[in-house]
Structure formats: structure tokens, C-alpha cells
């Protein structure tokens, strides 16, 4: 039976894959041809490092051999002039007059310039192996034709066309290397084939020495050209079959090897091959300042190549050596140059952040050689030979420069043109170089070596400028939170410059007013996430800048004490809005309306967007500017996203169909109100397609309500989902965000341990990714992309992250780091939610919750202002009062003495956030004692206990979120104050009994509950004699307490704090009866000043600050902390 089921499953999978292949058309205009390989592969998608290393060695053997031979022949052919000059070429072709010889060397590179771009266009448009074969064969013919030249004019023409034909080889080789190797592998491979310029100079003198001995009818130099041309023609024909063009079409590799070759290049984010020329990428290159820096380095450094390739044998001959010996003495220079051109790229491959520094070092070597050749007397033959041998040091730097250009440029067309552009700089340098060595300056060529000295120094300094420029750019990106992602590595439309733009986006109001470019604000925390790197790379470069001062500006508005605002409903038929009440500062009073809109009454401001507070740190000369971000250009390629998702089966999820249904129901019943990121209509299809989302949904739902069916449990689901996320297995970024939002329901560890498995950590990750996808900024109304975005979903995701961040700011006493000026996303409205009744009802609660969290964020901001003694602005209390009174009737609660009959789980949870905020506003700490609770705090804490009693009475509290532990801990601190008042002690202890039961139930869910429960035991048992009426050792009367409270508020204006509690009456409980006696009609009391607030959890977490560092665990020894007892009430809390 099992075998039959297995066969059926395999047949279904095979049929599905075949159908997918038939129905999926890979767009190779906007995507790379590598997608064809991904689409056609049906085997195992994973591979080991050993398997990749074996494949890389095979590529090295196949490819490097071909490239080395071809490039060696090229250099042999073009450098033939300098050696043939010793055997009569200059006299036979009248090159001894003026600058004719120098110009014959320079005109070769004029042909290089003319032919570079056409050659690259041909290589991109047609099979590169055919283009290379044709070019090499043709230049071999051109080389043979040198022997028919009888004057310098004919030689000029031959050299021009030889340069034109050879011009495309180096850029094509750069493109081939970029198509086969990863970024960190490219520099060394570039150096391998480029080193042949030196090593060929070891063998070519020997060959030409032998050919120079021929005594025949032709001049010796003609035999040299005939031999070189014949070999080149034969090799050019062989290239047609021998050259592997790219991983897609390379012969001799199995289907699996081809798949690995393509798939491993995803991290390059630069594509493998695209045959379509894109003009916009060419224009983009022309305005790229880093390209011009590299161009200048190539130009200036190659001026030294004039004496190296054209005059070295002549210079050595001028030292007094014979013609044949001068030829042999060139060999050490070739050995040095070739070895240096291998070692320098190898150092770049082995060690990071050295490229620009090594270019500078190579320029320094050439500078030293030029100085010696310029200043030393002619009798110092040994030193002058040494100078000639180290003069080619510049070649090692140029080998690195080629790889640096490839690594820092994305977009196939842009890379192709940039490769040719660098070669144009190379050519211009080689044109100028020979021309500065004039015959009249022989044999010392002083002006020529002065020129080489100056240009080599300037080129070295420009390499340092390039490094500094890239380093500054990387730091700017780190502050902006740009991450490297590889999901669209084969989408060739994305270039390094395009990745930096946000076209089609409205600038925020602040930047628009200042007429500035709208850039993402740096994180105030400035924390850095450790980069995921390979090999020996360490995290030594991590930086943690200090925290800048926190802004204390507050939005203000006017509110009447007797009437409560209800803003008119703002409809969004197109899913947009012209203004955002949740973002903008309120400078005008609310409009007054006594009737509530039945759909939803608008209210209160929140604030807006966060740049990710962690990012990858990149240093050195590697420009990370083009690394993939989630911009509008790459967001809509649904076909490729679906294709990649189908190809990623590493973490297949075979959940029972009933489990999917159970998990979905649990989510929509218990989670949707606080995390409305999934859609009932599309959820089944999404979890079938996405293992990440399926496991994330399973972890949240199984944690809240474990099903009776066999299942893996939330921890197992969490590990699977987390692994999928960190290994970039999910192709669709929006699906990734949805899944990350669900990670909030998994926090197995206590807050005493700093880790990356906490809900706080995942909230920061969600914000970081949401901002990278520009979710906090919606397209302009006339943007064509607007109709393709799920605007409602984007708003629900963003405001979910915003609300959690604001809560984190208050419960952790952290700065509220989301800046309203960074975003233009509209407020959430009911139009953003599905139209079914349940979604609309839950959406309404979510909208009010977001508005409350906006107020909570402003409270957190005020509490963190430097002047702790300054009172909190009255506007914060008025905002809370306005919020509670703006609730429509069906979202209001009434707390009576009897058990609640019209209990609504979500509505009661909503009020927990409100009550906790009231407690925070009215806790006062002084003299090292526990925070003193003022009357509103005690009453709010009692109401919190009452709501929890209603929840516990219904037998299920697992749906309560982790932040409920904060509600309970904060309420407990306020009720401790009531224990000292005999008239309130009995009621306070009963309420604390409820809190104790609630926290014990939460201990089965959340690690933070263990800390709160431990604090309960340490703080309560010594201070209260019993659970049902004990007294503290230092009791005080209610009148005495109220008198002291009146002293605290005497300087405030008249303020009726009972307006906080429209749902409370004297019948609620004994605490309410005692505290509000005579105040039911709103009799004024004094306003309460700002507390120097110390929250319960903040005291416990005081020994560490960095909640977002995921790599070091800080253990706080809570058992050793000294909590105060009644006999030690004046001792400071530990």
C-alpha cells in the first residue's frame, strides 16, 4: 500500500513539473537566460561544498586553460613589435625617423578603442564562442599580413586593424569569468589569464631568439610574424569548439553540474547572460562616478605600459648589451610581471578589503622603478636592470582593477559596456605612453620617466579615493538598512544605480518642502546585524555607533473637556488617501460629532516609518551599491517568483489537510485582529506554495491552540520556518513579510536572555524588510505600478509592524524610532480589509488599536526625554481620554460587580493596552522605593485584573499575546501600593490573586511570564501577610494616601481623572468605590505630574541594553537580584 501511494505521489509530482514547464514561459528580455536552466532542472536542488569545489576545479581546468592560451597569444602578437624592432623592423619600414616607431605602437590602441564596443555588442548579441573564434582567426591573418608591409604607412594600417580585431578579447574574457564565477572568485581568475602577459614574455624571447637565427631570403622579423600568425589562426579555429561560452551552454557538463553552475551565481546579483542590449543601462553607466574613477586609474596606470611593452628591449639594449642578449634579459621582467599578476589577485581572493590598497601598492612599485630609471647613472647597470624588472608592477594592479569593476557593476549590458569602457582607458594610456618616449630623449628618456612617475602616483591616489568612496557609500547603505538579497539575481533590468532609486514614489512632506531627495532616515539605534559570510571572513568590522539624542517634539491638538471627538469616515475607493491622520501632527481641534459612524469613526494620529535598525556592514573597496533591494522594479514578476518557489523543495511540508484547516481557523479567530496579514480567500493557495508561510502559520496556531491531531509542535515549525527565511528559500517578498509577522507568536525564552528568537527581534526584522520593500511609501497616484500593488495588504502589514514597535518602545523604555516624516502610507481604513462581516469587525478593532499604539508611542517618547522632572504634556492624557470616548458603542465595555455577560475577547484585550498606559502615566518613583501608584494607576490596575478574571473564567487564556505579561506586571506594581492601604488591601490582594493565576497560565506560553512570576513571589510574599487580606508592615490610611496624592498634584490645573474611566462606577469593586466616591459627576481634582517612571520589566532588564544583538547571549542572574521587602522598602530595586 505504501509503495503504491509513493508511486502515485511521484507520478503526480512528475506530471505537475511537466505541466509547469509547458505552461511557464521564461522571459529572457527582462530576465537572464539562467532562468531556463532553473526551469528545466527537476533533480535535487541542494549541493555540498565538496561538490561545488569539484565543479569549480573542472571549470578552472576547462576555462582557464583556454583563456590563458588565447590571452597569451594576444599579448605575444601585439608585443611582437618591440622584439622585432631589434631585428631590423625599424630600419626596413623607416621607423627611425621622429616618432614613427612610437606612433606605430600607439595606433594599435586606437584600433582597440574603435573595436571594443562593436566587439562587445557582437558578443552579447551572438554566441560568444563564435565571435571569439572569428576574431582570433581574423587577427591571425592580419598578423601574417605584416610581412607585406614595405613602409611605415602600411604598418600603421596593419597595426590599427590588428588592434581593432584584438580589442574585444579582454572584455569578452571579463564577461566570461563573471558568468562562471562568484564575486569572491573572480579577481583571482582574472589574474590567472591576465598573468599571461608576463609569462608569455618568458617564452616569446626564446622563440624569437631562435627565429632570429634564421638565415633566409626574408628579414628575421618577418619569420617571427609568420610563425605567430600561423599559430593564432590554428588556435582561433579550435576556439569554436573549445571555448565554454557560459554556464547555460557550456559543453561537457551534466544537467546537475549545469544547474549548480547557474544556481550558485545567485549571490552575484548580476546575471549570467542576457542577449538584449539595454540603452538605459549604457546611459546610466555614463553618469556613474565610480566608473569614471576606474577609467581614470586604468588610463593613468597604463601610460607606464608604453615603456614596458614597447621600449623595454630597446632600453636594455641601450645599457650596452647585444641584440640577442637584450632579448634574453627581457625574460626576468616577464617572470616578475606574471608572478605579480597571479599573487596580487590571489591576495584579493584570500583576504577581503584589499583591492584598492593592492592597486596602490602596485602603482608604488612602478613609481619606484620610474624614479630609478630617471635618476640613476648609466653605469649602475644592475640597479637599472632591477628597475626594468619591477617596472611592470602596474600589471598586478590592473588585474585587480578588472575584477573590481565587474564586482561593482550589475546589469548584463552595463557590465559589458563598463568592461569595454575600462579597456578604453587602458587603450588611451597605451596610446599616450609610447608617445612620451621620443627618439631625441634616448637613451635615458627622462621626460618619459617623469611622466610615468607622476601618472603612477596619481593613479595610486585615485585608487585610495575609490576605496574611500565605496566605503562611504556602504556606510550610507548600512545606515539606510539596505540588505543584500538574491531573489531576483537573474532579473537583468536591475542595475547598481537603479537599485538605489525609488521611482514613482511621492516624497514625504518634509523632503518635498525642503526640495530635497527623499531618503530613508537612519536608525536611531544604529545596531548592526552580523553579515552572513563565507570562508574566513569574521565580524571584526561590526560597528555600533552611539545613540544620538532623541527628538522630543510632540504633536498637539485641542480637545473640549465635555465633548468627545469623532472624525468623519474617510473612504478610499481606490485604496488611497490624500492625508494620513495617523502620521500627521494634529494642529487643529477634532471635529465634534455626537453620533458614531456605524462603519467606523476615524480618530487619532500615529506615526510612520522605520529604517531597519540592523544591517550588514561592508567595508573596503567593494561597492555594495548595486546589491539587491526590494524595489518596485522587481516586485511584480509573478511568473518568475512562482517558478522559483516551485523549484525550492528543500523544506517541503507534508501537513495533514485537516491541520491546515485547523491552523487557519485558529489564526482567524485569535490572531487576525492583531496581525491582519493573511486573506481567507488566498490562504490555502499561499501555504500550498510557500513552505515558509505554512510553517509560520503552524507555529503561531499550534502555540495558541494545540490541535488534537498529531503535529510537530510550534518549536519544530519555528525552526523550519526560520531556516527557510535565513537561507533565502522564499521567492516572494510579500509572502516572507506575512510569515515574519506570525513569528511574533513564538518567544520561548525569558527577556533575561538576549537572543534572536524573541518577538522583539522579529518585529525589528519585519520593519526592516517592510521598509526595504518601500511598503511605508505608496506610489504616486499616476504611477502605473499602483494598480498592481495590493495596497490594502501593504497597509495592514505596515501598521501591524508600527503598532508592535510602539508597544515595544514603551514596555522596554526604548526610543520610538519610527519617524512619521519617513513615510506617506495612508492610515488603515475598513476599505483595506475583506468585506465579510468578521474581517470588518476585526479590522475595526485593529484600526483603533493602531491609533492607541500611536498615543503609546508618544507617551514613550515623552518619558524618555532628558528632563525627568518635567511634567508630561497634558495633551497625552487628553489623547487617551479622546480615544476611549471615541470608541463606538459595540467596542466599549462596562465593568460591573457581576461577571461580564457580553464578553468580547478582542474588545477586552484592546482595553488592556489602554489601562496599562494609564498605569504607566501615573506611577511615580522617588527615593529608591518601588514606584508609587497614584489613584488612576490603582484603579486601572484593578480594572486590568477584572478583565483577566473574565478571560480566565472562560477557561482559555492561551490566545493572550506575550505582551500580556507586561500588562500583568505593570498592574501588579500599582496594586502593591494599594496593599499598604487597609481600606484597599483586601480588594488589592484579591486582584493580585487573579494576576498570579493569569501569570501562571501564561508561563506555559511565554518565557517572559517566568520572570514576572518570580517577581511576584519576591515582592508580594514579604509585603502581604496573606492572599486574602494581609497588610504591609507600614500601612497607611486611605485618607493619608489621598492627602499625599493631593500634595503631588497641587501644582497642576484642574483635571478630572475619572474621564479615563467611562466604563467604571462605584459598583465595579471596592477599590473603585473607595477611589471615586464623590467623583462620579466629574468633580475636578489636581492634574498629576510626570512620573520619573520605572516600569517593572525595565528594572528587571536594567543590566543590559542591546535587545537587538542576535549573536551574544547576555544572561541576567535574576535570583541574585535584591527585590525590596516591607522591611527594606527604602532600598533601591535590583
Automatic annotation (TrEMBL):
Keyword rRNA-binding: no
Membrane disposition: Multi-pass membrane protein
Single GO cellular component term: membrane
Cross-referenced SUPFAM superfamilies: MFS general substrate transporter
GO-annotated molecular function: DNA binding; transmembrane transporter activity; zinc ion binding
Membrane-spanning segments: 59-76, 101-123, 135-154, 160-180, 192-211, 223-243, 291-316, 328-349, 356-376, 382-404, 416-437, 449-469, 959-978
UniProt keywords, alphabetically: Membrane, Nucleus, Transmembrane, Transmembrane helix, Transport
InterPro entries xrefs: MFS, MFS_dom, MFS_trans_sf, XnlR_reg_dom
Region (Disordered): 515-551
Gene Ontology process terms (BP): DNA-templated transcription
Primary localisation category: membrane
Compartments reported by the entry: Membrane
The protein's name in its UniProt record: MFS general substrate transporter
Organism ancestry: Eukaryota, Fungi, Dikarya, Ascomycota, Pezizomycotina
Amino acid at each position: 500500500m505504501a509503495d503504491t501511494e509513493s508511486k502515485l505521489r511521484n507520478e503526480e509530482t512528475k506530471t505537475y513539473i511537466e505541466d509547469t514547464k509547458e505552461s511557464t514561459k521564461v522571459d529572457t528580455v527582462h530576465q537572464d537566460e539562467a532562468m531556463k536552466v532553473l526551469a528545466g532542472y527537476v533533480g535535487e536542488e541542494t549541493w555540498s561544498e565538496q561538490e561545488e569545489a569539484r565543479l569549480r576545479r573542472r571549470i578552472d581546468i576547462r576555462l582557464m586553460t583556454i583563456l590563458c592560451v588565447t590571452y597569451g597569444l594576444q599579448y605575444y602578437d601585439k608585443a611582437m613589435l618591440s622584439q622585432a624592432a631589434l631585428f631590423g623592423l625599424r630600419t626596413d619600414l623607416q621607423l627611425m625617423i621622429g616618432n614613427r616607431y612610437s606612433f606605430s605602437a600607439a595606433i594599435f590602441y586606437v584600433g582597440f578603442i574603435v573595436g571594443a564596443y562593436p566587439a562587445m555588442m557582437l558578443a552579447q548579441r551572438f554566441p560568444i564562442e563564435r565571435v571569439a573564434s572569428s576574431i582570433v582567426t581574423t587577427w591571425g591573418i592580419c598578423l601574417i599580413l605584416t610581412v607585406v608591409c614595405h613602409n611605415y604607412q602600411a604598418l600603421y594600417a596593419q597595426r590599427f586593424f590588428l588592434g581593432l580585431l584584438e580589442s574585444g578579447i579582454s572584455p569578452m574574457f571579463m564577461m566570461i569569468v563573471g558568468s562562471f564565477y562568484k564575486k569572491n572568485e573572480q579577481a583571482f581568475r582574472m589574474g590567472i589569464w591576465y598573468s599571461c602577459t608576463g609569462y608569455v614574455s618568458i617564452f616569446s624571447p626564446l622563440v624569437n631568439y631562435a627565429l632570429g637565427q634564421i638565415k633566409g631570403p626574408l628579414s628575421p622579423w618577418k619569420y617571427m610574424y609568420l610563425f605567430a600568425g600561423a599559430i593564432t589562426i590554428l588556435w582561433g579555429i579550435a576556439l569554436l569548439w573549445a571555448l565554454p561560452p557560459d554556464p547555460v551552454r557550456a559543453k561537457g557538463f551534466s544537467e546537475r553540474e549545469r544547474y549548480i553552475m547557474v544556481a550558485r551565481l545567485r549571490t552575484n546579483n548580476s546575471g549570467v547572460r542576457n542577449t538584449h542590449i539595454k540603452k538605459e543601462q549604457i546611459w546610466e553607466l555614463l553618469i556613474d562616478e565610480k566608473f569614471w574613477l576606474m577609467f581614470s586609474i586604468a588610463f593613468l596606470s597604463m601610460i607606464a605600459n608604453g615603456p614596458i611593452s614597447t621600449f623595454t628591449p630597446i632600453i636594455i639594449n641601450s645599457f650596452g648589451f647585444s641584440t640577442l642578449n637584450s632579448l634574453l634579459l627581457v625574460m626576468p621582467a616577464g617572470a616578475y610581471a606574471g608572478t605579480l599578476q597571479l599573487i596580487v589577485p590571489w591576495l584579493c581572493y584570500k583576504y577581503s578589503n584589499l583591492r584598492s590598497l593592492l592597486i596602490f601598492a602596485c602603482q608604488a612599485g612602478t613609481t619606484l622603478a620610474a624614479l630609478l630609471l630617471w635618476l640613476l647613472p648609466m653605469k649602475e647597470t644592475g640597479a637599472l636592470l632591477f628597475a626594468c624588472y619591477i617596472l611592470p608592477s602596474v600589471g598586478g594592479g590592473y588585474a585587480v582593477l578588472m575584477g573590481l569593476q565587474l564586482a561593482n557593476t550589475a546589469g548584463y549590458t552595463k557590465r559589458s559596456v563598463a568592461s569595454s569602457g575600462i579597456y578604453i582607458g587602458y587603450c588611451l594610456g597605451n596610446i599616450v605612453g609610447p608617445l612620451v618616449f621620443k627618439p631625441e630623449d634616448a637613451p635615458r628618456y627622462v621626460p618619459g620617466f617623469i611622466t610615468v612617475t607622476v601618472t603612477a602616483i596619481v593613479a595610486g591616489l585615485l585608487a585610495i579615493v575609490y576605496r574611500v568612496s565605496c566605503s562611504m557609500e556602504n556606510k550610507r547603505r548600512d545606515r539606510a538598512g539596505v540588505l543584500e538579497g538574491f531573489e531576483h539575481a537573474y532579473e537583468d533590468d536591475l542595475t547598481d544605480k537603479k537599485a538605489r532609486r525609488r521611482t514613482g514614489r511621492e516624497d514625504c512632506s518634509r523632503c518635498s518642502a525642503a526640495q530635497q531627495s527623499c531618503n530613508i532616515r537612519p536608525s536611531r539605534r544604529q545596531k548592526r546585524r552580523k553579515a552572513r559570510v563565507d570562508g574566513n571572513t569574521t565580524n571584526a568590522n561590526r560597528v555600533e555607533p552611539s545613540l544620538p539624542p532623541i527628538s522630543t517634539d510632540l504633536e498637539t491638538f485641542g480637545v473640549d473637556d465635555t465633548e468627545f471627538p469623532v472624525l468623519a469616515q474617510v473612504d478610499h475607493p481606490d485604496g488611497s488617501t490624500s492625508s494620513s491622520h495617523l502620521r500627521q501632527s494634529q494642529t487643529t481641534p477634532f471635529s465634534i460629532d455626537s453620533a458614531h459612524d456605524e462603519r467606523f469613526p476615524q480618530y487619532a494620529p500615529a506615526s510612520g516609518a522605520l529604517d531597519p535598525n540592523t544591517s550588514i556592514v561592508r567595508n573596503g573597496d567593494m561597492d555594495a551599491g548595486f546589491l539587491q533591494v526590494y524595489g518596485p522594479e522587481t516586485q511584480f514578476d509573478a511568473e518568475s517568483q512562482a517558478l522559483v518557489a516551485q523549484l525550492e523543495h528543500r523544506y517541503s511540508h507534508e501537513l495533514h489537510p485537516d491541520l491546515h484547516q485547523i491552523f487557519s481557523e485558529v489564526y482567524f479567530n485569535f490572531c487576525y485582529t492583531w496581525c491582519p496579514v493573511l486573506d481567507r480567500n488566498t490562504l490555502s493557495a499561499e501555504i500550498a506554495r510557500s513552505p515558509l508561510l505554512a510553517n509560520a502559520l503552524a507555529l503561531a496556531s499550534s502555540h495558541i491552540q494545540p490541535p488534537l491531531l498529531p503535529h510537530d509542535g510550534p518549536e519544530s515549525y519555528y525552526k523550519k520556518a526560520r531556516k527557510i527565511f535565513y537561507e533565502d528559500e522564499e521567492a516572494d517578498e510579500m509572502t516572507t513579510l506575512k510569515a515574519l509577522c506570525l513569528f511574533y507568536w513564538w518567544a520561548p525564552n525569558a527577556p533575561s536572555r538576549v537572543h534572536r528568537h524573541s518577538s522583539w527581534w522579529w518585529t525589528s526584522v519585519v520593519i526592516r524588510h517592510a521598509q526595504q520593500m518601500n511598503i511605508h511609501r505608496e506610489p504616486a497616484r499616476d504611477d502605473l505600478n499602483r494598480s498592481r500593488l495590493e495596497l490594502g495588504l501593504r497597509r495592514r502589514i505596515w501598521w501591524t509592524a508600527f503598532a508592535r514597535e510602539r508597544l515595544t518602545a514603551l514596555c522596554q523604555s526604548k526610543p520610538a524610532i519610527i519617524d512619521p516624516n519617513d513615510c506617506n502610507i495612508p492610515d488603515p481604513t475598513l476599505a483595506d480589509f475583506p468585506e465579510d462581516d468578521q474581517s470588518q469587525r476585526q479590522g475595526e478593532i485593529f484600526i483603533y488599536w493602531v491609533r492607541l499604539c500611536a498615543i503609546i508611542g508618544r507617551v514613550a517618547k515623552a518619558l524618555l526625554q532628558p528632563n525627568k522632572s518635567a511634567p508630561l504634556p497634558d495633551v497625552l492624557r487628553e489623547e487617551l481620554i479622546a480615544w476611549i470616548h471615541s470608541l463606538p458603542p459595540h467596542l466599549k465595555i462596562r465593568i460591573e460587580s457581576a461577571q461580564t455577560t457580553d464578553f468580547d475577547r478582542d474588545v477586552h484585550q484592546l482595553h488592556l493596552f489602554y489601562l496599562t498606559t494609564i498605569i504607566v502615566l501615573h506611577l511615580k518613583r522617588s527615593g529608591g522605593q518601588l514606584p508609587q501608584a497614584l489613584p488612576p494607576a490603582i484603579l486601572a490596575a484593578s480594572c486590568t485584573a477584572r478583565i483577566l478574571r473574565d478571560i480566565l473564567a472562560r477557561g482559555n487564556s492561551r490566545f493572550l499575546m506575550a505582551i500580556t505579561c507586561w500588562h500583568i506586571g505593570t498592574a501588579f506594581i500599582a496594586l502593591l501600593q494599594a496593599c499598604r492601604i487597609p481600606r484597599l488591601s483586601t480588594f488589592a490582594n484579591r486582584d493580585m490573586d487573579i494576576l498570579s493565576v493569569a501569570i501562571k497560565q501564561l508561563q506555559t506560553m511565554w518565557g517572559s511570564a517566568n520572570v514576572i512570576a518570580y517577581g511576584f513571589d519576591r515582592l508580594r510574599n514579604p509585603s502581604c501577610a496573606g492572599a486574602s487580606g494581609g497588610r504591609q508592615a507600614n500601612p497607611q490610611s486611605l485618607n493619608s494616601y489621598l492627602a499625599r496624592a493631593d500634595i503631588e498634584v497641587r501644582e497642576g490645573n484642574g483635571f478630572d481623572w475619572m474621564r479615563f474611566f467611562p466604563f467604571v462606577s462605584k459598583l465595579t469593586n471596592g477599590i473603585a468605590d473607595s477611589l471615586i466616591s464623590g467623583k462620579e459627576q466629574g468633580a475636578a481634582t489636581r492634574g498629576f505630574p510626570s512620573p520619573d517612571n520605572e516600569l517593572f520589566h525595565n528594572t528587571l532588564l536594567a543590566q543590559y541594553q542591546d535587545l537587538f544583538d542576535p549573536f551574544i547571549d547576555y544572561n541576567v542572574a535574576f535570583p541574585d537580584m535584591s527585590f525590596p521587602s516591607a522591611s527594606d522598602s527604602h532600598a533601591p530595586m535590583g
